[in-house]
Amino acid sequence: MIITITSGKGGVGKSTTTANLAIGLAQQDKKVVAIDFDIGLRNLDMILGLENRIVYDVVDVMEGNCKLSQALIQDKRTKNLHFLPASQSKDKNILDKSKVQALIQELRAQFEFVLIDSPAGIESGFEHAMLFADRAIIVVTPEVSSVRDSDRVIGIIDAKSQRIQEGQEMPKHILINRIKPNLVEKQEMLSNEDVLKILALPLIGLVPEDDKIISATNTGEPIIYTQSPSALAFRRITQRLLGQEVEFAQFKSKKGLVGTLKGWFA
């Protein structure tokens, strides 16, 4: 299955989501590859702690400078996970539709799950990242600007993905990231109900604001390896991707941050 993780703007946690869901799926004995399609602005390698292992990148593969097997990097801790880095020096307009399609077909034959870390926004790199996907996860933060930009992205997916062009359904889900329950209670941040009402798509997960994600990124040890609230959220989202019935916890407004945490993150 080809899953594109995308967003309407940068800085919402798209690459962090890609890394943690890729690990979560690999931990469930699935063969997984995570691809960084953010040409020129890669950071998925740093989140996974694999930046020093890069020799070849996705552009090298598509341009025929190396074989796919030479560019794939095996994760250090989760052996079922491989990583294909973006080029740091090329322009994102270098991506060619036919070459992207050939790459995706080759990866589909080798892996059960192919997770594509899409560039944020609506440039050509984004269109190539979602063109051949089987489903999309739109990462959004509970802010008006993020929701507005994500709405534009959803419209482009519905207009240009190959599945839509072929008359098939293109499953799309919303992942609401960086939630701050205390701000939601004060009505200083959109609630998850507000976000879903605007975007009119099903929810796949809620992830809290988590200061530990910063240190996890800096050390190349993704948060899903820990027991933090966000790690629990990513593990539960992984279960839903595998088709398991995982009930969403109900949000109950209570005074104070501690009282809201239990009801939010699932």
**Global structural class:** alpha/beta
What would the average pLDDT be, to the nearest integer? Answer: 89
Binned, the helix content reads: 40-55%
Instruction: Find the count of extended strands (DSSP E, 2+ residues).
Output: 8
Sketch the topology as an H/E string, one letter per element.
EHEHHHEEHEHEHHEHHEHHH
Q: Helix count?
A: 13
Spatial order of strands in the largest sheet: 3-4-2-5-1-6-7-8
Largest β-sheet summary? 8 strands, mixed
Question: Could you characterize the architecture of this molecule?
Answer:
This protein has a single domain (2-264), classed as P-loop containing nucleotide triphosphate hydrolases (Rossmann fold), CATH 3.40.50. Helices cover 42% and strands 15% of the residues. It has helices spanning 14-27, 44-48, 58-62, 68-71, 97-110, 124-131, 144-160, 162-165, 181-185, 192-199, 212-219, 229-241, 257-264, and strands at 2-6, 32-36, 73-74, 81-84, 113-117, 135-140, 172-179, 203-208. The chain has an 8-stranded mixed beta sheet with strand order 3-4-2-5-1-6-7-8, sandwiched between helices. The longest helix has 17 residues, at 144-160. The model is unreliable at 251-264 (pLDDT under 50).
Could you outline the blueprint of secondary structure elements for this entry?
Blueprint: E1 2-6, H1 14-27, E2 32-36, H2 44-48, H3 58-62, H4 68-71, E3 73-74, E4 81-84, H5 97-110, E5 113-117, H6 124-131, E6 135-140, H7 144-160, H8 162-165, E7 172-179, H9 181-185, H10 192-199, E8 203-208, H11 212-219, H12 229-241, H13 257-264
